[in-house]
Write a structure and sequence with these properties.
By secondary structure, this protein is of the alpha+beta class. Helix content is 27%, strand content 40%. A 6-stranded mixed beta sheet has the order 2-1-6-5-4-3. The longest helix is centred in the first third of the chain and has 13 residues. The radius of gyration is 16 Å and the shape is elongated. It starts with 5 loop residues before the first helix and ends in a 9-residue tail after the last helix.
Length: 145
């Protein structure tokens, strides 16, 4: 496999799809048609299903801001790891009452990139337990694990 700049590919995805102004339609050019995201142990399969998932997620957060913390890759650029942070106000995230509570979510994503430069798979983990506490507790504090 030829060396590619996987960091640039992933950070372009973050900028195009998640940062303001959000453009979920960019998924059509950045993801392979058989793209898979594994989020919380559950697979969302296909570029089109992922696009619907993104639109649904974005709709559940007001004042959505996406921050790239750091991104690095393996030698040939086919695997990329990225740390990120999302801030915003709750509009029904995690099937909660849309109460406008401010929250911060942090996570990691490990990416597989094909030789064609298209994103093929994303394994993502985030601090969902802590965020759920911030969204649902009367005192607005995150759950502590």
């Amino acid at each position: 496999m030829a060396r590619m700049d996987g960091v640039a590919i992933v950070e372009n995805f973050w900028r195009e799809v998640w940062q303001q102004p959000q453009n979920p339609d960019a998924i059509d050019q950045l993801m392979h048609e058989d793209f898979i995201i594994t989020s919380g142990g559950q697979d969302v399969r296909s570029r089109e299903a992922f696009k619907k998932w993104v639109i649904g997620f974005q709709a559940k957060v007001h004042d959505f801001q996406f921050h790239i913390v750091e991104t690095f890759q393996n030698e040939d650029g086919s695997r990329v790891a990225s740390r990120w942070r999302v801030t915003g106000r709750n509009n029904g995230l995690m099937d909660t009452e849309p109460n406008g509570v401010s929250f911060e979510m942090s996570g990691t994503a490990v990416w597989e990139i094909g030789e064609d430069g298209l994103l093929r798979h994303n394994w993502v983990e985030r601090n969902a337990f802590e965020v759920f506490g911030a969204l649902t507790r009367a005192d607005g504090q995150q759950h502590k694990f």
